[in-house]
From TrEMBL, chain A:
This is Nitrite reductase/ring-hydroxylating ferredoxin subunit. InterPro entries: Rieske_2Fe-2S, Rieske_2Fe-2S_sf, Ring_hydroxy_dOase_asu_C_dom, Rng_hydr_dOase-A. The lineage of its organism: Bacteria, Bacillati, Actinomycetota, Thermoleophilia, Solirubrobacterales. Keywords: 2Fe-2S, Iron, Iron-sulfur, Metal-binding, Oxidoreductase. It comes from Conexibacter arvalis. The keyword Metal-binding applies. Residues 53-164 form the Rieske domain. Belongs to the bacterial ring-hydroxylating dioxygenase alpha subunit family. Pfam families: Rieske, Ring_hydroxyl_A. Coiled coil: none annotated. GO terms for molecular function: 2 iron, 2 sulfur cluster binding; iron ion binding; monooxygenase activity; oxidoreductase activity, acting on paired donors, with incorporation or reduction of molecular oxygen.
TrEMBL record, chain B:
GO terms for biological process: 3-phenylpropionate catabolic process. This is 3-phenylpropionate/cinnamic acid dioxygenase small subunit. The lineage of its organism: Bacteria, Bacillati, Actinomycetota, Thermoleophilia, Solirubrobacterales. PANTHER family: 3-PHENYLPROPIONATE_CINNAMIC ACID DIOXYGENASE SUBUNIT BETA, BLR3401 PROTEIN. Pfam families: Ring_hydroxyl_B (PF00866).
Amino acid sequence: MAVNPAGLLDLSLADGVELTQLIDEPGAHISRRIYGNDEIFELEQDRIFRRAWNFLGHVSELPNPGDYVTRDLAGEPVVLIRGDDGEIRAFLNSCRHRGMRVCRADRDNVSYMRCVYHGWSYSRSGDLVTAFAEELYDPGRLRKEELGLIPVTQVAIYRGVIFGTWDAEAPPLEEYLGDMRFYLDLFLGRTDGGTEVVGAPQVWDVSTDWKFCADNFTGDNFHLYTAHGSVVDLGMLPPDPMSLSYGYLVRAQGGHVLHLVPGPPDPSFEYFGLPRDLVPQFERNLDSVQLGLLKDHAWSVGTVFPNLSFMQVMVQGDIGGPNVTFLSLRAWMPTSATTTRVFSYLLLDRDAPEQFRRDSYEAYVRTFGPSGIFEQDDMENWEDCTRVNKGKIAQRHGLHHGMGLHLEPDPSFPGPGQAWPGSYGERTQLSFYGEWLKWMTHERPWAS
Amino acid sequence: MSETTTAAELLPVGSDDYSRAALFLYREAQLLDDARFEDWLETLHDELVYEMPVRQSVMPKDGTGFVDGMTFLTETRNSLLTRVRRLQTEQAWAEQPGSRTRHLVANVLVERGAAEGELNVTSAFLVTRTRADLPYDFFSGERRDVLARDGERLLLKRRQILFDQTVMKSYNLSIFL
């Protein structure tokens, strides 16, 4: 990456437009050119996804030594494997001999990662153990100790969630997450046993620029009453379109964002509707500020920059059914400028009671994922936005992101970061795009 | 129908119960393709269990890859009723304008079920979906159904949809399989 003395990367696109012209955070305008654009996609891979801490998986997907799952990291195949020492490691899933993937299932348990092409075999720790016909190499030519699988440059775990980055310069994960950890702990760190993945992720392909998914999950609460109007019509959301407008939009350090939305004044909406049996654990694991925020809110959606989103929301899975909360993680993996592979996980607190586990699972599958009565309408919007914004005429005109900008951060909000009052507004979207621009233009985006 | 079902236990093609089961599936396909969802709901048993497990790509030693405990659909009659009611609102954008589907059902095998009056029916399905000017989506797999006799009619009491894809190559599942 070319860098100028001010620590800025090369800003020019092929047609002479500069990246800094694409995002006007103070003016609340976003250029349509950032979507569905091959040049931008390549720059994002280079400047965001090969540098940022990316979601890779969850420790509960790999309970035993030898368990592996295969994933992508910045568009390249990686394998996560638990070693005999219990450590989870991540490697480029590519044999050092011809480049073949050494792990080809979505999941397995293996003694060795053995390439099916010529038989080079790697230990669960990634070391090359055997090549084929080693006696046919000149002495000293096959230096196996230098031919282990290429490790993901940094791998770290936060509250059970596994992250990786290809950048040796990236700060430690905890620093990257910064004070977003305070909020992530409301969902991932509130119980003694932490969370676990239920089954496996739902995975599906959507013809959208990944940024529309992340944008929506920055805490776009005001799309509910139009995009999800069907669910309002069914009586599964309160009829007043302003009834979910309360709460906060929060920007933590590093451009990580979320919203926190209170439920109606009914005790069943306290603690996000989580099982009351777990409250003593919340009291043990959270500080008093976190505990207060957990008690006072019912819905939260947010995004860890760049593309890991989460939601803890109460929904009705079917007409007449109870409101039940679920916790989902989703990774929006860009596969091209116009396509995204979605990984959607349901997480449960390991200590959650049996009936709640069943109810939460049903609520999640019925409302989110490709068949969900909420989410199926989201893809309708994201795909259409991606198609239309590619137009050269359309691109002459920016997109308006100006809701709620007159509001000042509330100094009395007890959590870290900036919190704007009310959950209808575009502060979190603008924060996301501001962060995007910083990563697209700065040599050291995490430092500025 | 289980893996241990023998050929001798399969009801002959053209036998009374076989024909009833096949007719149920063909009529259901027509109801779904014609978007006659209210009529389709009438074919569902009150105790219906309707599931479509998530699948992963695994080595043969690990079986078929269907995931224990996670699905793309986990439905009851009431949740399917909810989906139909949703389509009847004027804001179900994923289906407004609507999908055009073709449910093709083949390889129908029928055996007597565990309970009196029940039939276990397996079939292969290929569902095509197109919408607006979008290219075709294909959904293929196996259905494992239990049909229960209710007077003169059969009702769908259980459906397991064994989907062929591990990564759903469709942007949504706003149709019924």
